[in-house]
Amino acid sequence: MTQVTNYQDYRVYLKGVLEQRLRDNARYSLRAFARDLQVTPARLSEILNRKKGLSLEAATLMAKRLSLSEQETRFFCDLVQMADARSASAKKVAEIRIDREIQSQNFNTIQLDVFKVISDWHHFAILELTLVDGFRSDSAWIAKKLGISAHEVKAAIDRLVTLELLELKGKRLVKTDMKIT
User: Could you read off the pLDDT of 113-137 as tens digits, one per residue?
Assistant: First the structure.
């Protein structure tokens, strides 16, 4: 199960929940996730794509709809406040609470995006596929070549771009020179 306390960005957490539900049910969709969260699909898409944020009230309702515990709800709301609060002081307070929560867990964590790249084979396959003649920077094409869903490809591409392993030059995905050991 996807644990909110393993995340440092509430949007990445929501994407992780969506990915988990897609793995559990191939017929699940962004529209179904939006229905479960009681937001419109357009609004959810804007949130996930960093075009819109969440208010503290909306975050609390969303945490309830995700069946988060009281502690997880506080953490989720702090993540939202850290990202979307209007005042710098509210952001700072949320950041301090998040840091305390992470330190209280008494274990070392690696960034979830890094772990996903290491653990899911298709990330490296996408990187290598960019070097193949006839490569197309199209999620549906990549998904067909790798035998995975277009949503998994989109999430993997977003992750690879965030980690600077892949970059978008014009409309073409290009593997960067970053070395991984």
Answer: 677 777 789 988 999 999 999 999 9
> Alpha carbon 105 to chain centroid distance?
22
The burial of 156, by beta-carbon neighbours within 10 Å (0-12 exposed, 13-18 middle, 19 or more buried), is given as: buried
Asked if 125 and 146 touch (Cβ cutoff 8 Å), the reply is yes
pLDDT digits (tens, 9 = 90+) for 84-101: 999 999 999 999 998 888
**63, two tokens:** 């945490």
List % helix, strand, coil for the chain (3-state, nearest 5): 60, 5, 35
- At which residue do the structure tokens 């070392």 appear? 108
Structure tokens at 156: 């993997």
**Which of these, 163, 160, 181, lies nearest to 173 by C-alpha position?**
160
Name every residue whose Cβ is closer than 8 Å to that of residue 109 and which is 6 or more positions away in sequence: 6, 102
**Three-state secondary-structure class, residue 172:** strand
User: How long is the chain?
Assistant: 181
* Exposure letters 14-44 (e unless 16+ CB within 10 A, then b): bbbbbbeebeeeeebeeeebbebbebeeeeb
Which of 85, 33, 27 has its CA nearest to residue 56? 85
| CA–CA separation, 139 and 151 (whole Å) | 8
